[in-house]
UniProtKB/TrEMBL annotation:
Span of the signal peptide: 1-19
One Pfam family matching this protein: Peptidase_S13
Record bears the keyword Hydrolase: yes
Name of this chain's protein: D-alanyl-D-alanine carboxypeptidase/D-alanyl-D-alanine-endopeptidase (Penicillin-binding protein 4)
Gene Ontology MF terms: serine-type carboxypeptidase activity
Source organism, top-level taxon: Bacteria
Amino acid sequence: MLTALLAIAGAVCWRPALYATGLWVDGGQPTVSQTLFEDPSASPSASQPARGSGVIASAPVATPTHTPDPKALAAALAKVPAKDMGTTSGVVLDAVSGELLWSSRPDAGQIPASTLKLLTCLTALDVLGPDKTFSTRVVQQGKGIVLVGGGDPYLASKPAKEYPFPATSADLAKKTAAALKKQGMSSVTLGYDESLFSGPNWHPSWPQGYHDQVTNLSALWIDKGKPDEKSAPSQTPAPTAATVFAAQLKANGITVSGKPTAAAAGADAAEVASVQSLPVSSLVQETLVHSDNAAAEVLLRQVGVATGNGGSFTGGAKGMQQRLTTLKAWDASTRIADGSGLSRNNRVSARVLGRALHLAAASPKLRPLLEGLPSAGVTGTLHLRFYTPASEPGRGWVNAKTGTLSKVSTLAGYTRTRQGGEVVFAFMSNNPKQEWNVRSWLDQMASTLVTCGC
């Protein structure tokens, strides 16, 4: 744990450094006072991070810690009311050794909802590496130029005001205009190339009503195809991006003749300008803390491209299976339909989710997976969770990815026990009778890991 950094994270003077290192991943000032959440430990250790800081810190390092007693842990979890919670399953593993400490139907394939993003992001980190970036380029073909999508999920139209500061088409337009002017050019035709990704841009199992949850997929979009926050995403994000880029070129003194058209950039086309995406480590953190469906689907396609299976749903799923099998984070029940977990055709066991989290805790290369997990009661999709008296002890302590669809609720992440042990966990419920109450059950199960005294 980066205890020293966490202790000073609230200081305004340290915000630029935190942004630069990626430790502040949700933006803004600390969400709540560090004293809001009562420490569940009678005598807090100096190695424990400041709770409620709003900062997603370094995840647990896989070093020897106290290992919880399985019998005591089972007794504590058995006390959590589970009536009408549907088909449940779960695992708790020692984060260091991967030892199975507790389980309930661990190998049952369940609909994971957005906890599937853990597997998508783990595979992206493993295949691509945490430092990999994706290039959005402009190349020259004759008297025209082509805007080439590189699969940057966070390419923005203008600079962000706060972390994570993604690449912008405004910067690309400025660089392109400067290069063209050096050649004495003031007017060009504009094409756009989104051919890096292939196959359907909408999964057949997704209801049309999901257009508010995910953009039609493309290797080229700006602001995820949304002209503003109030508008629905464009169903043709690549030509929409080219139109935005044409206007930005005009603002920089370059006229675009006619409308942008689809084009294939030649392999030998000269590069005019380019911008680089955030590194994969930051893409993963943003995807997880905000449960970003569109970004997860882009990462799935990047996995497909990198593994030679093609940038499609099927190519990405095949690449995931290959890598996760190698990592021993795949079993007979696993079924991957998409990268975000929106499809109800996905199946994942609690054991596989637990294994993925253990791998991330044990490997510096994969650890950004944990660093992006929302903090209970503080950030991201857990901001408004862990509010009941039984689950409050987990606020600021539990870091986890949520998963929610109709009749599906899941939670998977890590925490420190009161005795100082580091554990990873996955709890799942399909077809509960009480959909609202099942979230409280998940939160209480996770909080019990903190307070069990085992």
